[in-house]
Amino acid sequence: MDISGKIEDSYVSLFGKKSDIKIKAPGRINILGEHADYNNGFVMPSAIDKAIYFSIGKREDSKLCISAIDLESYFEADNINNLTNKLNDWSNHLVGVILEIQKLGFGFDKGINVCFGGDIPNGAGLSSSAAVEAGIGFGLNEIFGFNLGLLQLAKVAQATEHNYVGVKCGIMDMYASLFSRKNNVIRLDCEKLEHDYIPAEFKEHTFILVNSAVKHNLADTEYNVRRNQCQKGVEVLNKAFGNINTLRDANFEQLEQIKADIDPITYNRCKYILDEKERVMLASEALTQQDFEKLGEIMNQTHQGLSKMYEVSCVELDFLASEASKIDGVLGSRMMGGGFGGCTLNLIKKEAEADFREKTKSAYQHKFGIIPEIYTANLSEGVHKIA
Ligand code: GLA
Question: Which of 355, 312, 354, 347 minimizes the C-alpha distance to 331?
């Protein structure tokens, strides 16, 4: 039985009837443009075929009942229109979405039952949280007929992270989960919140994820620190030149001119963001032209930037990226997502896949005593209803 079927079975045994709706909400990869979203830059994500599945149905009373199958945990509240969030609890990802929808002025005429679970590895930087938020928002929108658009649902999910989870994330993850199309990469302008699609169905190349199995615990706090460091740079730049609201508005000459007025760490953070802004343009051109050598080269540069300038990598990710570069047929390798653990994204020739998997596993096991999980990233459709 597939995962959705298992989730539905749990729903039926827990709530005694079938759900009203079943939803699939995918995780994502990001080809390039890392830590660019909250600096209003461009990013290049796509949903993948790892997802969170939901069964959702209305209740007769006003209770909210949620069963997190993978966590073997259950949450219940008496009145869906009078919810409070619990500190540091998984339920905030769903409760927060309901609270954010209510802030928009919508009420719930009935309570709901939810069962959810999936196959996005936790803490692997594949955005399982965004998938949970995007999926529950999408499902509630369908069931209650709120008529929210996908962009509003992405904003609701992002606000949930900010207000109830405590991560001041950008909008990339939820946007990718909601807007993706099979075999396409999204090129998202995070300032205008507009996107186009770059077709990405390849004959001879593929994206492979290697999970370092390092959970990015540090990420949440360090992530917010990075945001503040960028903001610090923006303040000095804006004072000097005006009209600089985010690092998107700044250029290299301006950064060099204020170099003496900022500390070296702030400089490095800003420099990385400006470099990445340039790289993402080149990468989207390379992807459009299917120039894989070029794209791989840019991915490698991004890894160096994330590791040395933005300092969000770790020894395990650096090791994986460096080992990958030694394997024939690997065109690019970099840490992906927020950092401090999670996966590397590798662009490789399909013919090299078996060799890549074997060498990567054995090198990583030899060095860290862990056999890493390796997944092919199939570019998939965004959040949708399933039959
Ligand atoms: C996390 C955040 C995203 C983005 C990436 C880094 O996944 O949730 O908004 O900032 O890190 O690119």
Answer: 347
Integer distance in angstroms from the first to the last C-alpha of the chain? 14
Whether 38 lines ligand 1, by a CB cut-off of 6 Å, is yes
The structure tokens 């609201």 sit at 245
- Give 337 Cα–ligand 1 centroid separation in angstroms: 5
Residues of the chain with pLDDT under 70: 217-219
For 131-154, the DSSP string reads HHHHHHHHHHHHHHT----HHHHH
Q: Establish whether residue 170 lines the binding site of ligand 1, counting it when its CB lies within 6 angstroms of any ligand atom.
A: yes
Give strand pairing partners of 117.
53
> What is the rounded CA–CA span in Å between residue 314 and residue 309?
13
Give me the amino acid identity at 162.
H
Which mutation among 32, 35, 122 tests ligand 1's pocket best, with the greatest number of atoms within 8 A of CB? 35
Quote the tokens at residue 72.
């073997």
> Which pLDDT does position 34 carry in this prediction?
98
pTM for the model: 0.97
Asked whether residue 344 is domain-assigned, the answer is yes
Output the average pLDDT for the chain.
Answer: 97
Domain that holds residue 35: 3-201
Q: What's the pLDDT at 184? A: 98
Q: How far is the CA of 279 from the centre of ligand 1 (A)?
A: 17
Q: Are residues 186 and 214 in the same domain?
A: no
Q: Is residue 22 part of a domain?
A: yes
